[in-house]
Design brief:
Elements: E1 2-12, E2 15-26, E3 30-34, H1 41-48, E4 56-63, E5 66-68, E6 77-80, H2 92-100, H3 111-117, H4 133-145, E7 151-155, H5 163-176, E8 181-185, E9 197-200
Parallel strand pairs: 3-8, 3-9, 6-7, 7-8
Antiparallel strand pairs: 1-2, 1-4, 4-5
Helix pairs in contact: 4-5
Length: about 210
């Protein structure tokens, strides 16, 4: 899968979040979007997901079968982000079963095995509302990383996770991040050690509002 941006920009009212971005993202590589808090990293990630419309320029999604319509990009991606909520009345098992009903998981792993892989084997049947914030983040990572999608988007993937959770995340990316297009929005180097390319959004932000 590829994502190609040509002179792409996004603004809210008169403020440019980024502008004049020319870049190509390709499968088999991992990219980090960096920049200070509030600089627009998450906005760029959502533009790449097709969830937020760009304001200028163009963006093109394609795979080996040709160009992908912007309305269908969601079928090709999975995402974990702080602003995406879990259904907390469900158990982790129920939540992943529900997710699987509209987006398949990678072959060869049962949902129980996925939850064990993220260290939640003792909480499979517990409602998510009783999970700690770190446990909830593990569910989000399982939902995203184990989805059978060519595009994996991760926004601050280690939010609320302790040192063992960060090591788990790095292990998951080592085992399941290859041969996909992975884009991580983060300021934390522990979340992006596997990223071959880094994009500082400040390099694409006008110095002053226009």
């Amino acid at each position: 899968m590829t994502i190609s941006l040509s002179d792409t920009g996004k603004r809210y009212n008169r403020e440019w979040i980024f502008r004049g971005l020319n870049y190509a993202f390709s499968s088999g590589k991992a990219y980090a979007i960096t920049g200070p808090n509030g600089s627009g990293k998450s906005t760029l990630l959502q533009v790449l997901a097709g969830a937020v419309a760009h304001s200028t320029g163009s963006i093109r999604w394609a795979n080996n079968r040709g160009e992908i319509s912007p309305e269908l990009v969601y079928q090709q991606l999975s995402i974990a982000a702080p602003y995406l909520e879990l259904i907390e009345e469900m158990t982790a098992l129920e939540f992943l079963q529900f997710h699987q009903s509209f987006k398949p998981f990678l072959p060869g792993l049962s949902i129980e095995a996925m939850l064990a892989r993220v260290g939640l084997e003792q909480a499979v049947h517990k409602q998510i509302r009783f999970y700690s914030s770190g446990m909830k983040q593990r569910v989000k990572l399982a939902q995203a990383i184990f989805s059978d999608t060519p595009l994996l988007l991760l926004d601050e993937p280690c939010s609320n996770m302790d040192a063992s959770g960060i090591r788990l995340y790095q292990s998951l990316m080592e085992d399941f991040g290859k041969n996909r297009l992975v884009i991580v929005s983060s300021n934390d180097p522990q979340e992006t050690p596997f990223c071959e390319e880094k994009i500082n959004i400040l390099d694409w932000k006008p110095a002053a509002r226009k």
